[in-house]
Amino acid sequence: MIDQKRFLKELNEAGVEFITGVPDTLLNEFCLEVSAALGKDKHVIAANEGNALALAAGYHLATGTVPLVYMQNSGIGNALNPLISLTGKDVYSIPMILLIGWRGDPSLNDHPQHVLQGKLTPILMDDLDIPYIIVENEGDLPFEAAKWAVQTANENQSPVALIARKGVFERGEKDDLSKLESPFSLNREMAMECILNSLPQDSLYVATTGRATRELHEVRNLRGEGHENDFLNVGAMGHTSSIAAGIAIANNKRVVVCLDGDGAAIMHMGALVVNGDLELGNFIHIILNNGVHESVGGQPTVGQKVDFTSLAEKSGYKTPGKALQTAEEIQEFLGGVDLGNGPYLLDVRIRKGMRQDMPPLKIDPLQIKKLFIEKNLKLL
User: Fold this and answer.
1) Are 243 and 233 a contacting pair, CB within 8 Å?
2) Which helix (H) or strand (E) holds 370?
3) Torsion-angle region of 196 (φ positive above 0: left; ψ -120 to 50: alpha; else: beta)
4) 353 to each of 26, 175, 358, how far by Cα in Å?
């Protein structure tokens, strides 16, 4: 891993004063360094990558400086619209630096959801006419790349990209967040156990990307249960509630539960109003809210500052009237609801972190899909 302070200093001295983005595992130490070094007026953890591009564009319009936007390469999809119709040379020609974590790098093994994105990352930059450098941990090259990026963005008056390989902006391990003090008694695994115990055994579950999928899979194993009622959304961050709503539309005889995260729910929050308007009686949307992007290193979200309960009620959901914090509160609410009279939304406040012996998620996505369809189509 490179010296993050030096990299940030090189950017700052070259004229970069505003940074925004969505955290990524491969950029973990950079994100943490930026959070520690810059205040809210100079660093914003955005809802999604398109949001970050727009914030950066606005800052440039007000200052003339070159901002930096960081993201995992999976976020390029969210960024495409503003990259093409806002910052591009043929529109407003706005200079900025894209710092992109290269998941699915073809030279390395990675999870299936990252493989195609990894192959496409340089291709997309070429197709978007965005000059780029692949940043590796070799001597002064990363710091020279920072200077090149600012200079080229200024000269071209359009975006440039730094595509970061593994080991440049992260040290390969994350802090154990479970050791942090918290006002909340439940962790995500405990909350899942409580939810599973409180709802019918044939309920269908859709879990959001990251640790929620990993932990639901393990909880099922520990309980000696199968995985046929679970769809593990290993990618497509922010879209889990929409997947679950689609299932609920098609199958109104089963309870459909979305196990969401606060960062994921915020990423595409417009889904809340659409889901609520669908009036799905069998739909339960549960936000396991720990206030951080935990899977990529624990960078903060605004999740525990948001009143999801009020937002949900205004969007057409029924709620407990407050955020829930204990197993007793979850069991009391879920045990007393009319499971055909939803939709319901629960904001469940939980501790950060997970137990250190949690096994990695090793699944075949196609087999997960096949099992889910085979076991549940006949029950429509």
Assistant:
1) yes
2) helix 365-376
3) alpha
4) 19, 9, 11
Q: Which residues of 3-37 are buried (b: 16+ CB within 10 A; e: fewer)?
A: ebeebbebbbebebebbbbbbbbbbbbbbbbbeee
| Maximum C-alpha span of the chain | 63
Exposed/middle/buried for 266, CB within 10 Å: 0-12, 13-18, 19+? buried
Candidates 72, 196, 78, 113; CA nearest to 369 is: 113
Contact 27, 192 (CB under 8 A): no
Please give the domain boundaries of the chain with CATH numbers for all domains: 4-164 (3.40.50.970), 177-379 (3.40.50.970)
Instruction: Yes or no: say if 354 and 187 are a contact pair by the CB < 8 Å rule.
Output: yes
What six digits make up the tokens of 39?
């205040």
Q: Does pTM surpass 0.85?
A: yes
Best CA proximity match to 225, nearest among 208, 205, 243: 205
Number of other residues whose CB lies within 10 A of the CB of residue 130? 18
Beta strand ranges found along the chain (DSSP E): 19-21, 43-45, 68-72, 97-101, 132-135, 160-164, 204-207, 230-232, 256-261, 283-289, 292-293, 299-300, 344-349
User: In one letter, which amino acid is 155?
Assistant: E
Tens digits of pLDDT across the chain (380 residues): 999 999 999 999 999 999 999 999 999 999 999 999 999 999 999 999 999 999 999 999 999 999 999 999 999 999 999 999 999 999 999 999 999 999 999 999 999 999 999 999 999 999 999 999 999 999 999 999 999 999 999 999 999 999 999 999 998 877 889 989 999 999 999 999 999 999 999 999 999 999 999 999 999 999 999 999 999 999 999 999 999 999 999 999 999 999 999 999 999 999 999 999 999 999 999 999 999 999 999 999 999 999 999 999 999 999 999 999 999 999 999 999 999 999 999 999 999 999 999 999 999 999 999 999 999 876 55
Contact partners, residue 291, CB within 8 Å, separation at least 6: 262, 300, 301, 303, 304, 352
